[in-house]
Amino acid sequence: MFYFTDQELDDLVMEHLGHFDVATSLLRLENKPAKIQFSTCDTTVVCCTEEAMKIFTKFGIQTTLFTPSGETIEKDVKFFEGEGLSKNIQAVLPSVTYLVGFASGIATRMRSLAGKANETNPDIIVAASRYIIPNTKKIANKAVLSGGGSIHCNELSDTVMINGNHFGFMGGPERLEERLSRYRKPFTGAKIMAETNNKEEALKIARSGIDILQLNDFSAEDIASVKKELNRLKLAVKLAAVGHYTPENIEQYVRSGADILLSSWIMNGIPADLKVSVMPIFDVYP
């Protein structure tokens, strides 16, 4: 379960609300009974409805229809609804719209990509790359899991990720094996990952005793070549590949022999296409 604190949810609302909703106040529409409805405009994997419902509750809005994160909803289906005073619904409207929209967009792309990859190889792991907008990691991670993907290299504190910025301080990747043999003991339970953009460097790193070798922006042919060499050397190293993988091109990378595919496409897309409507509960107002 992803837990969002009250402060995190308040920050989401305040980012858009500011001091108060000027338009609703000016038109004297604050205390009208109203409802808000979310519907899909295309097949969508919904996400962050739990957090939207918590925001509703904080503003006295009663949730009357709820669909949990991870559910696939067909086109033109209502999946989330609330009722309350118009001033409260208008106050949270931008925040819940953007939250559910962006999170559902990530979840939908994740489901699409993982589903396409698993058609070719049911065992392959598909994850999102860690290139995201700052301060959105928790939302993004929830969306990735809701879409059936995996989380990769969540934080510097929970993943040993070695890259070229480290090699420059130790005399190159050929010194990695020595370093790991001397200093790895306190982190015995941690998986050691190392990344590279270079095919020749990849094989040097693979011999150092790491657990996962990450190849950045390699072609499918080069990934297959590295995999073949790892098998020839009988190195039990998992192969992760990072790139702009989409449902249209992922099959060739699945067939390359990579164990993990990390796609930047999942995070770098538009929100889910949703219809969000706010309307009076009663037809006529004075």
Structural overview:
The protein has 286 residues and is α/β, with parallel strands linked by helices. It has two domains: 6-112 and 270-280, Quinolinate phosphoribosyl transferase, N-terminal domain (Aldehyde Oxidoreductase, domain 3, Alpha-Beta Complex); 114-263, TIM Barrel (Alpha-Beta Barrel), CATH 3.20.20.70. Helix content is 38%, strand content 20%. The protein contains ten helices and twelve strands. It has helices at 6-17, 22-26, 49-58, 86-120, 137-146, 164-167, 176-183, 199-206, 220-232, 250-254; strands spanning 33-40, 44-45, 62-65, 72-73, 78-85, 125-128, 160-162, 192-196, 212-216, 238-243, 260-263, 274-280. The protein has a six-stranded parallel beta sheet with strand order 6-11-10-9-8-7. Helix 1 (6-17) crosses helix 4 (86-120) and helix 8 packs parallel to helix 9. The mean pLDDT is 91.
